[in-house]
Design a protein that fits this description.
This protein is mostly helical. Helix content is 69%, strand content 0%.
């Protein structure tokens, strides 16, 4: 019976033209669906998708046939007691839905009722989890009204299922898709409360799933909900005590920075609202210059003419547009913030004498001054607190900064970084003094550098960038996740592309920190993308900031150097000619590896050298690259030698195309000395390979080949090793004799070549005689 089920498609192809025969076959399908053997039912399920496709192409009444015969079988098997049959039916249902073969009427009246019954609160846990997964997949093929009417209530019930955590896990994983399907109003009314419950679930896997889909959920919420509800919730997730949850949230934050999307509206450091307008932003910018201690714990975004909510972004099209997005009283009609610039100037003038006269340590001095200054600004904003949400956001930030300065006065400096993270400071956490980041920070204090402030906050909000930069703190690898730096390194080219080269100063220190990370995987990630970053930054920034990192990677582990090597040509071609020549001598260092068995490293070097030849003049190629090619041609691994023969051909073509016949003859002499007269048979075999490749590509003039290479090649006919004579027979019979200049009747070298071939045809070794006799048209078959 299983064989019968397997052959149903062929039977339908034979009898579908006759209506009676077709109906008979479909009745057989129905009877097979009732078979008691699970293997028969499983086999039948596997045949339904191709049968459905065939019927769609061959029958005009396909919707009726599918609805009456096939769909009921698939739906019935969703409740089959056999696990394998159920899994097969679920896969088939998803295939039919993806191909849009099942009508909306059948989905609503046949599929949905079964799924709702399986996902009932008193249902079996295993069936419930499977039904929940199918419900989440169905929302993409149903209309918004149908989802709200049939599936949304049950989905909300499943989100709160307390019996089986796998059901809640399925809901959390697909939460963003459900929000997108039902729209903003239903999301805020029904789904956001359930999302809060899932984000507070006792199972860390649930909270991790929520963190990973947070961006999708935020797209379906209004700006007010994002600011008031989702922003604190996301901060809670990235501060979760479980490292897997916090890492999941940080990965989402990294992705939002690298793509520059509108997720930046949702979260900013320590609840900082990204929709601050020009007045508040300028006031915050002035505050950051009050003292070094204040700057270390408070960074506000630079000014912008419009709120972030009104600025378009790459992801703005996916966000539902409601009336509040078109006109918003908060955005367009608000009481202006007070002008506190004069007060700030007064505070700055008063701060100087206090710092000079204070005998306490420098850090404590700055902390005292910062507390008094921030407290005064807070007092000046209190009268506007109830009228403007923007002021409320700024007050929250200033309060966080005030708490940070209070911690500075009672906590040892080496604990500032960790406490700053626990308090949720607005800017990047202060690194431990022993870390590379701390060293770079201290050097930055000694040598004034451009502050890490964006020149335009309509790309990425400043606090979001600060949060991204803080992930490179080596302390994060110890307390959060060891791979967090790798995530940052992987997305850094995307962040740089989003910010543009005009904002590279914001990432320069971060890039240097990652380039000196103790984990080789982080440095390897940067090495594989340094050429892409060079394209983004341009030649001047590349020479100033990337070339030193590139030089460090050249001396790194092989696992890091391979990233440089794979894109060596792409990076070198972006440098100026004088800078590029500095690497000529260093290229030969790639021949030496930490592990001599790492032959793929040398293979990659040969491939890159073929491309790099165009970047240097013939004299440089002769003095530096030619010697590397000769070493690679003598490599122990045959794969490396074969690709190196192509490199030799490319070098000879370089000399010939630039009319450097003297350099070409010098190279040919080296080839003859090193390989034709080599004491090892592998070297002499390599000479035969090289001669065949040179003749095949015609990379040197015929006169040079006949005069310098052909005599040495023909002399291999008396070589004692059969493998060498086999290669000679192939070169003469399949390549040289096919060239027009040797087939000419008056060519004096034709007779010598033909005599050598005749001698090889009578060779005592059968392989040599076979290839010397083989016709060129059979070459491909013989090689196989």
């Amino acid at each position: 019976i299983q064989i019968v089920a397997r052959g149903l498609l062929d039977v339908l192809r034979d009898f579908s033209n006759n209506e009676e025969d077709f109906l008979t076959v479909m009745e057989i399908v129905v009877r097979l669906a009732e078979d008691t053997e699970p293997t028969v039912r499983t086999e039948l399920m596997e045949q339904i998708p191709p049968i459905a496709v065939f019927l769609q192409e061959s029958r005009s009444d396909f919707p009726v046939v599918l609805s009456e015969y096939l769909t009921p079988i698939v739906v019935r098997y969703l409740t089959d007691p056999n696990n394998q049959v159920r899994k097969s039916s679920q896969e088939v249902l998803l295939i039919l839905l993806e191909q849009d073969l099942i009508s909306q009427h059948d989905i609503e009246n046949k599929v949905c009722p079964v799924l709702l019954a399986l996902s009932a609160p008193d249902g079996d846990d295993e069936y419930k989890a499977e039904a929940a997964n199918l419900i989440c997949k169905l929302v993409s093929v149903l209309s918004k009204s149908t989802v709200e009417r049939l599936l949304l209530p049950r989905f909300c019930e499943l989100c709160g299922d307390g019996k089986f955590f796998q059901v809640r896990k399925v809901c959390a994983t697909n939460f963003g898709d459900i929000c997108h399907a039902v729209g903003q109003e239903a999301t805020e009314k029904f789904l956001i409360p359930k999302f809060f419950e899932l984000c507070s679930d006792s199972v860390w896997g649930m909270r991790k799933a929520c963190a990973e889909c947070f961006m999708a959920v935020s797209y379906s919420a209004s700006p007010e909900v994002r600011r008031a509800q989702l922003s604190p919730l996301f901060i809670k997730l990235i501060s979760d005590p479980c490292r897997w949850v916090s890492v999941g949230g940080l990965a989402v934050l990294v992705a939002s920075c690298s793509s520059g999307n509108t997720f930046s509206r949702v979260v900013s450091s320590d609840g900082l609202k990204a929709d601050s307008v020009e007045d508040s932003a300028l006031a915050g910018a002035e505050l950051t210059r009050l003292s070094p201690a204040t700057s270390a714990s408070l960074k506000l975004p630079a000014g912008s003419d419009l709120p972030i909510h009104s600025l378009p972004g790459p992801g703005s099209s996916t966000c539902p547009e409601g009336p509040e997005d078109v006109f918003n009283n908060f955005i367009y009609w608000r009481t202006p913030l007070p002008d506190i610039s004069k007060d700030l100037e007064l505070l700055l003038s008063e701060a100087g004498p206090q710092e000079e006269g204070c005998s306490r340590p420098e850090t404590v001095q700055h902390s005292c001054v910062a507390r008094s200054e921030i407290q005064k600004v807070l007092d000046s904003l209190q009268e506007h607190l109830m009228n403007d949400p923007d002021v409320q956001a700024q007050v929250q930030v200033l309060s966080a900064a005030l708490r940070a300065t209070q911690l500075d006065s009672v906590i040892e400096p080496e604990h500032e970084g960790a406490e700053g993270r626990n308090e949720g400071s607005v800017s990047a956490p202060s690194p431990a003094p022993d870390s590379p980041t701390a060293l770079s920070a201290s050097s930055a204090q000694k040598e004034p550098s451009e502050p890490r402030i964006l020149r335009s906050t309509d790309i990425i909000p400043q606090p979001l960038l600060d949060q991204y930069v803080s992930m490179t703190d080596p302390a994060r690898a110890q307390t959060v996740d060891i791979d967090i730096a790798k995530h940052c390194a992987y997305s850094l080219p995307g962040v740089a592309l989003t910010l543009g080269r005009q904002n590279w100063h914001c990432l320069r220190d971060t890039y240097e920190t990652l380039a000196s990370d103790v984990q080789w995987k982080v440095r390897r990630t940067l090495a594989f993308s340094i050429h892409e970053l060079a394209v983004i930054l341009g030649d001047q920034l590349t020479a100033a900031d990337l070339v030193p990192v590139f030089n460090g990677f050249l001396k790194d582990l092989d696992e890091v150097r391979i990233g440089i090597l794979k894109h060596l040509y792409d990076f070198l071609k972006l440098l100026h000619e004088d800078k590029r020549r500095e690497y000529l001598y260093q290229l030969q260092e790639f021949v030496v590896t930490n592990n001599s068995r790492n032959w793929r490293f040398r293979y990659e070097l040969a491939e890159q050298l073929i491309l790099i030849l165009e970047l240097y003049n013939p004299n440089d190629v002769h003095d530096y690259l030619m010697h590397i090619a000769l070493k690679l041609c003598a490599d122990k691994v045959s794969e490396v030698r074969w690709i190196s023969f192509k490199l030799v051909v490319a070098i000879l073509q370089k000399f010939s195309s630039h009319s450097e016949s003297a350099l070409g003859l010098s190279f040919i002499s080296e080839l003859i000395i090193r390989f034709r007269h080599c004491t090892k048979w592998v070297g002499r075999q390599a000479f035969a390979f090289i001669c065949q490749a040179v003749a095949d590509e015609e990379c040197i003039p015929v006169e040079q080949f006949v005069e310098h290479l052909l005599p040495g090649l023909l002399s291999l006919a008396s070589d004692p090793v059969p493998n060498v004579r086999v290669l000679l027979a192939k070169a003469l019979r399949q390549t040289l004799l096919e060239k027009a200049y040797l087939r000419n009747a008056g060519n004096p070298h034709l007779q010598v070549v033909e005599e050598t071939v005749l001698a090889l045809q009578s060779d005592r070794d059968p392989d040599v005689s076979f290839f010397a006799t083989l016709e060129p048209k059979c070459r491909g078959t013989a090689d196989v």
